[in-house]
Amino acid sequence: MTALLEEARRLLNLAKRDQAAFLALLGVEAAGLSVACFHAQQAAEKSIKAVLVLHGIEFRRTHDLLALAALLSETAMTLPVSDDWLIRLTPYAVEFRYDDDPIHLISGREAEQVVITLIKFAEELIAQKQSVQNP
After folding, report:
1. Residue 60: pLDDT band by 50, 70, 90 thresholds?
2. Are 25 and 31 spatial neighbours (Cβ–Cβ below 8 Å)?
3. Is 97 helix (H, G, I), strand (E, B) or coil?
4. Domain segments of the chain: what residues?
5. Which of 37, 54, 58, 115 is placed for a possible disulfide with 92 were both Cys, Cβ 3.0 to 4.6 Å?
6. Spatial separation of the C-alpha atoms in residues 104 and 77, rounded to whole Å
7. Are 7 and 122 within 8 A, CB to CB?
8. CA 120 to chain centre
């Protein structure tokens, strides 16, 4: 297994950990949607970064999902979620972590769909790359 494939798999595993935290918190009223969506944003971010690493694309430290997605243009690949969803999920990484008022840019169900879609996308690409390297 190459170092890039290994790092992509590591990031995907971290994304799945954040997905589990998101799903666990989603139904906890005391936690609130913003806390749950923080983990959804993190799962989305790590899934996108896994794809970038897999393709050898360097990226700066950022939580901006749209900026990360734009880097995929180097591969002529686009993410299977709309830019609108990425824009709406991004603020949960930083801006909303310190806000005690509930902010609803995205519903829990919508955030869940984004995370499921991005994790599946990264999983499929990693599996393809792995099958090419280990026929």
Report:
1. very high
2. yes
3. helix
4. 3-130
5. 37
6. 30
7. no
8. 10
User: What are the backbone angles phi and psi of residue 27, rounded to the nearest 5°?
Assistant: -95, 5
Q: Which long-range contacts (CB under 8 A, 24 or more apart) does 124-129 make?
A: 125/51, 125/54, 126/5, 126/8, 126/9, 126/12, 126/50, 126/54, 129/5, 129/8, 129/54
Mean pLDDT value across residues 85-114: 85
Give me the long-range contacts of 17-24 (CB less than 8 A, separation at least 24): 18/42, 18/43, 18/46, 19/43, 19/115, 19/116, 19/119, 22/111, 22/112, 22/115, 23/112
For residues 92 and 42, what is the distance between their CA atoms, to the nearest angstrom? 9
Q: Global pTM?
A: 0.93
Between CA 26 and CA 112 the distance in angstroms is 9
Q: What is the CATH number of domain 3-130?
A: 1.20.120.330
